[in-house]
Amino acid sequence: MTTNGWVPQLPSVIRTKGLTKRYGRRLVVDALDLDIVEGDRFGFLGPNGSGKSTTLRMLLGLVFPTAGSAELLGAPLPRGCKSVLPQVGSLIEGPAYYRHMSGRANLRLFDAAGPGGPRRTRRERVETALHRVRMGRVDERPVRAYSLGMKQRLGLAGALLREPRLLVLDEPTNGLDPQGVHEVRELLAELNREGTTVVLSSHLLSEVEALCSSVAIINVGRMVVSGSVDELRSQTGDVHVRTPDPDMAVRLLGEKVLRRDADQLTIASDDPAGLNASLVSAGVRVTELVAQRRSLEEVFLDLTEAGEIPL
Amino acid sequence: MIAVELRKLVTRPRTWISIGLLVGLPVIVAVLVEATGVAPRPGEGPAFLSQVLSNGTLYAAAALAIVLPLFLPIAVLVVAGDAIAGEAQAGTLRYLLTRPVGRTRLLVAKLVTVVVFVLLAVIMVAGAGYITGALLFGTQPLPSLSGGQPLNSGQASFRIAFSMLYVGVSMLGVASFGLFLSTVTDAPLGATLGGLAVLVTSGVLDQLGAAGSIRPYLPTHYWLSFVDLFRDPILWRDVERGLALQAVYVVVLLGASWAAFVTRDVTS
Questions:
Q1: Contact at 8 Å (CB) between A299 and A232?
Q2: The complex's ipTM?
Q3: Is residue B49 within 8 Å of B29, Cβ to Cβ?
């Protein structure tokens, strides 16, 4: 199931088998099998109400599964939570704070609440985390007065306090401006290069596409598809060609030309290299030739369209 | 974790505002009584108030009696109802639990915080009552409510301290209701008002002759029994029953809170 299947020696950080959650008669998560390996950048995609959050909550020990099993960093859930959660940073359904305190005070309190991390180095940990999200010079205003973007960054800083092995993030760029989105993406990529496994749930496909190496798409609590982003974005068999000699190309290729728009052609071909060779050898000059891939968005819509979206 | 929770309690403006209000009411009453010289006749109005004009020492107990029926339980219920539900509403509960802070540990820390608030409130009210009484009405040896010999100062301090403890235990019973409701809802206001509904129901039934057989089991029934501590000799019967009744409520409700909290899905 996993994307990095070609490096099977990597241990799983998250593994679930038949993970199921029912609220009364409503089935929210239905027999979900996940396997996320260490070092992965994993995107968890699905429309609103598809069970993403409930799954993440089960993985963090907040919600108890109705059936099935889950392992987090090798410990069985929910019993093993206590031993592994210190190595996990999370941001679930938006950040949350004591609104009358400053961001710094919030982080200090948050740091003091859990195990690990001596009191001496608390100030340093807090400053490092703030620095990482570019809030190193933030003043002592209460969080109440923060912008949405600052709150989101502070939430990320909270998740980074213990230099976690695994980051579980729900919509981490929510409320950020494009500059902020870019910074967060860079930060996550950097953390991932340093060895942190990043699990990100989002309905923003571009987000997942830009950051993640593998993805699972769920809908109505069921896994629809999972795999590497490259695999999912398979070629569509269409090739875009730009040429100063469109007429010649149309004459050469005949019915293979699906669409023509001035100097731009869409051509049905499973072999872009061969197509290029035949065009050029026939004297058709080629300005641009791109094998079209489906965007993750198209994959997503194709796969989730059929399933009904619960209200 | 307990230190963290206590820090939250003392850094929160609300804590001090509610204590300020609690202390303010008896002070206002004292000033009015002093200025007008019109004390309630014996047997009317809050306990002890009829005697304070002649003796300020008793005003510590009178202050407790003034805030006991409504003001103090509301303040306690606000803090207790906020304990878990407040964290749930703010969304901080999920971050505390994934920190991770064990659920039992968090509940114990919240309980300690509530107990500290109750003690703080009782001590502040009684302390402010004593100071106000001493300043406005002067101090004399405490008379016993049953007449007879005045109490010596050692006896008087003991009785005032014990009545503070008694009021504190009664408020712990109230707090247990708040804490329990706080673990089953995500709305702190709901938990507070739910607790208040329990007290109002109890108060109404306590006045009702037809509810006679259940009256001794109502949480508010023995609240004012600390008045008996100022009789000579002390009338222990109702005080003992009051303490035992509150202990039962506290144990049962805290057990229920724990069971509810550790098995609950946190979806807030």
A1: yes
A2: 0.81
A3: yes
- Cβ distance of B96 and A82 shorter than 8 Å: no
B123 beta partners: none
Kindly state whether B12 is in contact with chain A, defined as any CB-CB distance less than 8 angstroms.
Answer: yes
The DSSP secondary-structure symbol of B151 reads B
Q: Which residues of B touch A108 (CB under 8 A)?
A: none
- State the virtual CA torsion across A111, A116, A121, A126 in degrees, nearest 10: -30
Instruction: Count Cβ atoms within 10 A of the Cβ of residue A148 and give its class: 0-12 exposed, 13-18 middle, 19 or more buried.
Output: middle
Determine contact: B100 vs chain A, CB below 8 A: yes
B105, two tokens: 């540990």
Sheet holding A264-268, edge to edge: A257-261, A264-268, A235-242, A288-293
Number of H helices, E strands in chain A: 11, 14
Alpha carbons B186 and B85: distance in angstroms, whole number: 5
Tokens linked to A39: 């070092």
- Give the CB-side neighbour count of residue A54, counting CA atoms within 13 A: 26
Q: How far is the alpha carbon of A10 from chain B, nearest alpha carbon, in Å?
A: 25
Q: Does pTM surpass 0.90?
A: no
**Is residue A232 a contact partner of residue A225, using CB atoms and an 8 Å limit?**
yes
- B92 in A contact zone (CB under 8 Å): yes
Contact A62 B263 (CB under 8 A): no
Per-residue pLDDT tens listing for chain A (311 residues): 444 445 456 788 999 999 999 998 899 999 999 999 999 999 988 888 888 989 999 999 999 999 999 999 989 988 888 889 999 999 988 889 998 899 999 999 999 988 767 888 899 999 999 998 888 888 888 999 988 888 888 999 999 998 899 999 988 887 788 888 888 888 899 999 999 999 998 877 778 888 899 989 888 888 888 888 877 777 677 888 898 988 888 888 888 888 888 888 888 888 888 888 888 998 889 898 888 877 777 777 777 665 444 43
